[in-house]
């Protein structure tokens, strides 16, 4: 019993001899040639799978490259899976030596993974990362809490000069960008508000709109977003670089807590500076609204400021300042956390800085939503 499947290039002839499937190879076995793979030959000749042994005869092969070796390895792997005997007759020079150099373990194939299994693996991996990140965050919260206790108990150990330097970096040097963005936000809000209020002849109430929105929401929010992108990333990059350079390991070897040495000065600096930046952003946002009112409407600066003073109360200012303090804590926490989680490579520093910005902004949005619910319940 014999059959032939051939194409231009190379061919495989299959026959059965006393329960042994004989595969006679011929032609030019090259990767650019055309011919059947072992899987196609097996599909066309199922008797190969039922045979107790398989013998390959390659005496009529004219030229060959890795295509021939791939066919032989696939045949051997099939025999191994079926527990059938595999043997070779005539082989071109060098093929047998190459075939012997490839162990059977290399050809072991993992079973195909269904999409559901892949989804489960991805979900479990994601859950593991989230769990690890949460545990590290909770651990850092504990270390910061203990660090605050040590600062109160041993104030002379606190690195005051580092705190002042961090206050300069996240406070004074951030004034230009915070002021510019706050001014533009107030200007845009006034432009949008006056278009709607003009329909009712109530343009003067644009001062109420801008003042309340800036003081209660946009001032602290925009200052926090700017600081998350500017200072949070800087904290993560600084601490991450120290980790890459093994400076944090050196601190631990010397018995110095990295939290006390690196995290606490930055946390305190940003917590103190955020309310001041929020007040600064409030003034600039109101100034932006006043600029639009005086330039595009018949409202002078005095009228605008008097209307703003009547609209804004102490409770409105306090709500924004409370938010800003919490925002400052969250931004510093996100930056220091990502810095301590940084990988030990330059790419890890960049990833830590990016992650610090994303995490900081996410914390800000979540905290702002929580404050909105709390203030609504309290009727503030």
Average pLDDT for all residues: 84
Q: Based on helices, strands and strand pairing, what is the structural class?
A: alpha/beta
Number of contiguous helices: 13
Low-confidence stretches: 1-7
Rg, nearest Å: 36 Å
Helix content: 55-70%
Looking across the biggest beta sheet, what order are the strands in? 1-2-3-4-5
Gross morphology is elongated
Q: List the domain count as a whole number.
A: 2
Q: How are helices and strands ordered from N to C? A: EEEHHEHEHHHHHHHHHH
Estimate what percentage of residues fall within beta strands: 5-15%
Question: What is the straight-line distance between the termini?
Answer: 93 Å
Largest sheet, if any?
5 strands, mixed
How many β-strand runs? 5
What does it look like?
The protein is elongated and about 105 Å long. The protein has a five-stranded mixed β-sheet, covered by helices on one side. It folds into two domains: 2-107, Transcription Regulator spoIIAA (2-Layer Sandwich), CATH 3.30.750; 158-378, no CATH class. It has helices at 38-44, 47-50, 66-82, 95-101, 115-153, 160-170, 175-197, 206-244, 247-253, 258-296, 301-311, 314-340, 346-378, and strands spanning 2-6, 10-17, 20-29, 53-64, 85-88. α5 crosses α10 (258-296). It is an alpha/beta fold and 380 residues long. β4 (53-64), α3 and β5 form a beta-alpha-beta unit. It has 13 helices and five strands. The chain is 69% helix and 10% strand.
Key attributes of the depicted protein:
380 residues, alpha/beta, single chain, 13 helices, 5-stranded mixed beta sheet
Annotate the secondary structure layout.
Layout: E1 2-6, E2 10-17, E3 20-29, H1 38-44, H2 47-50, E4 53-64, H3 66-82, E5 85-88, H4 95-101, H5 115-153, H6 160-170, H7 175-197, H8 206-244, H9 247-253, H10 258-296, H11 301-311, H12 314-340, H13 346-378
Parallel strand pairs: 3-4, 4-5
Antiparallel strand pairs: 1-2, 2-3
């Amino acid at each position: 019993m014999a059959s032939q499947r051939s194409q231009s290039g190379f061919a495989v002839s299959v026959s059965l001899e006393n329960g042994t499937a004989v595969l006679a190879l011929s032609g030019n076995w090259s990767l650019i040639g055309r011919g059947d793979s072992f899987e196609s030959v097996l599909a066309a000749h199922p008797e190969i799978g039922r045979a107790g042994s398989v013998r390959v005869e390659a005496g009529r092969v004219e030229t060959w490259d890795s295509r021939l070796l791939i066919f032989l390895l696939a045949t051997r792997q099939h025999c191994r899976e079926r527990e059938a005997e595999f043997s070779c007759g005539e082989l071109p020079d060098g093929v047998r030596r190459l075939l012997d150099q490839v162990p059977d373990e290399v050809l072991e194939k993992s079973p195909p993974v269904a999409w559901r299994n892949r989804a489960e693996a991805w979900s479990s991996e994601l859950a593991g990362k989230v769990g690890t990140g949460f545990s590290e965050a909770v651990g850092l919260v504990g270390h910061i809490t203990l660090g605050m206790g040590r600062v109160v108990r041993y104030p002379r150990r606190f690195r005051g000069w580092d705190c002042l330097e961090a206050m300069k970096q996240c406070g004074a040097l951030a004034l230009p960008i915070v002021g510019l963005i706050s001014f533009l936000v107030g200007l845009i809000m006034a432009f949008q508000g006056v278009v709607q209020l003009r329909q009712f002849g109530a343009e003067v109430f644009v001062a109420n709109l801008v003042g309340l929105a800036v003081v209660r929401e946009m001032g602290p929010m925009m200052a926090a977003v700017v600081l998350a992108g500017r200072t949070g990333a800087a904290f993560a990059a600084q601490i991450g670089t120290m980790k890459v350079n093994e400076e944090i390991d050196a601190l631990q070897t010397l018995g110095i807590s990295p939290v006390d040495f690196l995290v606490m000065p930055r946390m305190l600096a940003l917590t103190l500076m955020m309310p001041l930046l929020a007040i600064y952003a409030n003034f600039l946002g109101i100034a932006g609204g006043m600029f639009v009112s005086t330039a595009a409407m018949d409202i002078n600066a005095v009228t605008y400021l008097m209307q703003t003073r009547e609209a804004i109360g102490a409770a409105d200012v306090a709500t924004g300042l409370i938010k800003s303090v919490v925002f400052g804590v969250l931004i510093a926490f996100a930056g220091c956390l990502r810095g301590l989680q940084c990988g030990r490579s330059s790419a890890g520093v960049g990833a830590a800085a990016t992650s610090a910005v994303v995490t900081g902004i996410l914390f800000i949005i979540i905290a702002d939503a929580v404050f909105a619910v709390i203030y609504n319940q309290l009727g503030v």
